[in-house]
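Fold this: NAD-dependent epimerase/dehydratase domain-containing protein
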Amino acid sequence: MLRAKRVLIVGGTQFIGRATVEALSRDGADLTLLNRGTTPCAWLDRLPSLRVVHCDRWSPGFAAFIATEAPWDAIVDFVAFSPDDVEPVIALGPRVGLYIFISSDSVYEASDPAAFRRSAAGLLTENSDGRYHAARASADEYGANKLATELRLREANSLRSLCMRLPDVLGPHENTQRLRKLLLRLVQGKRVGTQIGGEPGAGARGRVMPLGLVFAADVAEAIVQAVRQAPALHGAALSSSLHGAEALSPPLHGADALTSATPVHICSEWRPTWVELVERLAELLRTRGELEVPPVQFDESKDTRFVSVDCGALDGSRASRMFPGWKAGAAEARLEECVDWWLEEMRERFAASERLEKEYANPEPKKKKTA
């Protein structure tokens, strides 16, 4: 009899993590969500079967908890940022069916561009991290630490792990504020920078360089597919929402096999330039929000305040081979979801502001004290 996968999610209360928790819940996984409990998460109330454990992953209690509760069919880690962070998981070795490390295309900011490898279509492939570049790494601590963590996982031969390298992520409930700020700038008619990278000529990149993008919902679905491939080490009764034999993927071989720190790009097939992305968002604000958004004014002397890497678009073919049941959603529909979410959020804020103004303008009369 098939069993529900027992999955630990570390972090996962916001943005991509939220989308992942919801997707795995729909797929019938037996979920435990571990976080510090410091972020308000009203949406968790809609998932009564979800087990929530409050623990700081940087405390000794984290290692003790995951070891006591092992084995885990899968661990999905959204908040590992350095090699030290993954040591407690490495210590579990084969008691974890699959460890999914949420990495980033920022690893290429710590790599030597001379060693980049591209597909026939000019897209960056996963073997482009072949040579460490100290100067670039010093300018991008986040990317350097993510790469160092991947390298540590590669050394851990007893742990089956997957490094999901994500480009810039779009989607509802974002916690980076980048999309919120960009949409607000468009509505306000402010100039939008096109610089990607800091060297001379970087301002032109926003007009010509294809971007690597992904949407949070697509990351979540890729994680669902990866969890389905994880070896079942623990058994609870299978949820009726899991699709039997369809939930099982064929074993993988060669470069695509899930081994130690297998890197994989999770990305959209849509690869617009920065200017194309911004102009499409502006048009959606006009059509879906019925807003009078002025024509976008671009400025090559300013940074985009959004694009985080200068390596361009990613090759996502390995993900298609590794996860036959996964395909990134249609970009237009995903963009509409982003804009609709932001518009609704703005409407709610405006309504709340109006209520406060009315309360201040018409305060309730004070009740007279009676003897």
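The first helix runs from residue 15 to 26. The radius of gyration is 23 Å.
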